[in-house]
Amino acid sequence: MGVVVKKVELSWLDRTYVWPVLKGMGITFKHFIKQLFTPTSKRYTIQYPDMKKVMPAGYRGLHELKRFEDGAIKCVACFMCAEACPARCISIEAEEFSDLNITQGFEEKRPQVFKIDMLRCIYCGMCEEACPKDAIWLRNDYEVAAYDRLSMQFGKWDLMNTYAEADGKARITEDPIPSAPRRAIAM
Amino acid sequence: MDTLASLLHTSPALAWMVVKIVIVFSAVMLLASVWTWVERRGSAMIQDRIGPNRAALFGRIRIIGLAQLLADGIKFFFKEDLEPTDVNKGLFWLAPFLAFVPAMMGFAVIPFGRDFVSGGATYHLSVLDPGNGMGMLYPMAIGGLAVYGVLVAAWSSNNKWSILGGMRASAAMVSYEIGMSLAVVSIFMTTGGYDPAEIISAQGSLPWHWNVVPQFLGFIVFFTCMFAETNRLPFDFAEGESEIVAGFNTEYGSMKFSLLALAEYAHLMTASALVVTLFFGGWQVPFVAHPSVGLSILSFVVKLLFFAWVFVWIRWTLPRFRYDQMMRLGWKAMLPMSMVNLVVHAWLMSHGR
Ligand code: SF4
Ligand code: SF4
């Protein structure tokens, strides 16, 4: 079945072309004037380095590893996110630490290395979904760029600190509780 | 003027000539390059965009992006001057100048202000004094030469797209030239002369006596043909990204490309000067019978800039024509219309108006 093309019968005035052209020029001029007198902040264009787009809630941008108030990382190195990640870009190495006050002598787990390859990440948010501790969040920030590939490997401290200052948190470069020495596992 | 002449050890006439040439051509060149920016900014506004506004002098002084001109110039100047291996070298180098020079030369006969008398001598505000025997025929002839710039650029670059673009452009120019010339002829007829000064003084200072009112048809034809002549958008057949890449300037880069692009805008300026002279009373100021020299220049410049803006405005209003549509419009609409215009005015004149 073919498509029936509707032929538009042009009126006498439209056939002269002059009047329609003038009409069109009126339209473009209206746009010109409107745009000319619209303040820059109200225009459609977001002039990027000066103005930034406010991302909607639920936008999936750069990750953040959340922390407790004392600066301890929330992540318990359960590897759920690494399992869930469809791009296989999270690599975690766990370590143990022990704090008598909190853990009553038992060892707790936390990541010693928590690396996300931002070049492979597809920002799907599966890691956030999978995390049982709400330790990894995808933020609204979208400015993830670097000059070389290596600096796109975000480590544990990058993930914890990149937006710490913007959020009014202190930069931390050290876990508050030192890790427990590795023990040989008794067979 | 006399003091300047004595300082330079030349005759006043020669000094005046040099001053006129320098002022007129530098003004046209400056306007042409400013118009590249006006075009980009204006089109942006028309399309609800913003346009080039970030270029700044010393990274600081951002005069609504006007520094873009400088930035463009510098960028083009320092680009590698690529020359494809199989081009015809001489013509390849010649073509940008062939395009640019005629576009500027047409301006030479246009009077841009009223004559004035100083120290017993009459000074004419046009590069070539009136009564030179060429009159309005000169810009028409030179305008016809402009096609060589496009064609030579196309031919010499040894590229299929370029050749196609050049062919189309020259076909368009040739077919629109006839309608345009006939529209101008009827003005010559009603004026009784083809000197721009005569044409302007015959139009008087009342806007409804300007040629655009009695010869509206002629104006429409002439203005439309000017778009084809200048290769501007509704009829820009020398280029065409979706069909023939960049057309005649596909192989061009750096300063040569910039010259070709500037030629278009210089041509645009000349074209709007022609429209103003022929149909809108040149330097005549509306309702002022004997304007001062300054006022007449201002009037001319305002009209010129307005029409230059109309060129931009129409470009961003109308979509492109298809090639056959443009040919049909040229031969089946513009030519008969200008003929009808000619015959009607001849008939009117033979009946004593
Ligand atoms: S957002 Fe998706 S791809 Fe990126 S680290 Fe999380 S699970 Fe992997
Ligand atoms: S971020 Fe969450 S899911 Fe990933 S290892 Fe840490 S606690 Fe487990």
Rg from alpha-carbon coordinates of chain A = 28 Å
Quickly give the CATH architecture of the largest domain in chain A: 2-Layer Sandwich
Order of helices and strands of chain B: HHHHEEHHHHHHHH
How many domain units of chain B? 1
Number of helices of chain A: 6
Strand order of the main beta sheet of chain A, please? 2-3-5
What structural category characterises the helix and strand content of chain B? mainly alpha
Order of helices and strands of chain A: HHEHEHEHEEH
| Termini gap of chain A | 77 Å
Q: Please bin the fraction of helical residues of chain B.
A: 55-70%
Biggest β-sheet description of chain A = 3 strands, antiparallel
How many strand elements of chain B? 2
Biggest β-sheet description of chain B: 2 strands, antiparallel
Largest sheet: spatial strand order of chain B? 1-2
* The CATH top-level class label of the largest domain in chain A: Alpha Beta
Helix content of chain A: 10-25%
By CATH, the topology of the largest domain in chain A is Alpha-Beta Plaits
The overall pLDDT of chain B, averaged over residues, is: 82
**Count of alpha/pi helices of chain B:** 12
| Integer tally of domains of chain A | 2
Inertia-based shape of chain B: globular
Q: Could you give a short description of this structure?
A:
Chain A is α+β, with helices and mostly antiparallel strands and 187 residues long.
